[in-house]
């Protein structure tokens, strides 16, 4: 990813800038979004006590997520990688945009609440705003504007983001199937489809970040040369964890052909289990697809002594879109078949049941 534009904010802190100064700093970084996407006439964006947004004819989708230092990221990971404000802003935007996409929606507005200690460097805060704005521009959230937010003090940094959206042309995509779709899937069976980056890379990146740098180097040198992951694999994994890329547009474009769906935030297995439970069916993964998805992760798995299939099926934060295809419909662009929903009483050959392995915030 090209380096973000750098602004010299020196060693200034939140305490030194004060609230008004921090707001100006954030506004400067977010201006690029407003310049490219002016608000519709009659709307009110940043600057007043509240935003005034146009109402979507089909209703408004709302998603919110929070990230907290020490839980969702570390200032410096054991592997020696520092978390930049840019990374936090990007990821906070991406995970909320993913939820709107998974509902078959189009993101239209974003608000954020940012907290941190008085000693937090202004450059880090500017990076958060820059990362958020860059994610909107580069991930394809073409209608999404920043409508405002809040600042607050805290012992540790935190960022909460709420994204609003409108239903796409094919309506809202839900986790639960409609009665006709469910009856057809139970009778005829169905296909499990997925859009987005191959699952497992973000989990591999997290495993790398959480491993002590000295241990990583020792493990790397202990491997045979042909078994050592190269720089591209290492960078790809870490970047997948810090800057995920949800397949925005896949949800609204494919919703007409999908019976149900959800984003993969907590792991393919756990989220498939949720989708299955919501509909009283089973989701099975094609063993050939699992092997294909795991193959590029094989050397990273050897480095960390983890079977790459565990990352593919149990790792989270790739933010792909998992769905069940409506019987009789073709696979939408951007999706591929990765498994099956068997008709009642059948077990598909060459498949494994997708269980509930994955991320749990409170485990």
TrEMBL record:
Positions of Mg(2+) 1 binding: 64-65, 150
Catalysed reaction equations from the record: thiamine phosphate + ATP = thiamine diphosphate + ADP
CDD domains (UniProt xref): ThiL
Residues reported in the UniProt entry to bind Mg(2+) 5: 266
Protein purpose: Catalyzes the ATP-dependent phosphorylation of thiamine-monophosphate (TMP) to form thiamine-pyrophosphate (TPP), the active form of vitamin B1.
Domain PurM-like N-terminal per the UniProt entry, residue ranges: 47-165
GO biological process, one term: thiamine biosynthetic process
UniProt keyword Disulfide bond, yes or no: no
Top class in the EC scheme: transferase
Keyword line: ATP-binding, Kinase, Magnesium, Metal-binding, Nucleotide-binding, Thiamine biosynthesis, Transferase
Positions contributing to ATP binding: 149-150, 174, 265
Residue stretches in coiled coil: none
Family of the protein in this entry: Belongs to the thiamine-monophosphate kinase family.
Protein name per the record: Thiamine-monophosphate kinase
Pathway: Cofactor biosynthesis; thiamine diphosphate biosynthesis; thiamine diphosphate from thiamine phosphate: step 1/1
Binding site for Mg(2+) 3: 49, 99, 263
Pfam families registered for this protein in UniProt: AIRS
EC number(s) given by UniProt: 2.7.4.16
Sample GO molecular function, one term: ATP binding
Annotated gene: thiL
Keyword Metal-binding: yes
Residues annotated to bind Mg(2+) 4: 49, 63, 99
Binding of Mg(2+) 2, residues: 65, 99
Extra facts: Reaction mechanism of ThiL seems to utilize a direct, inline transfer of the gamma-phosphate of ATP to TMP rather than a phosphorylated enzyme intermediate.
Annotated binding of substrate, by residue: 72, 317, 359
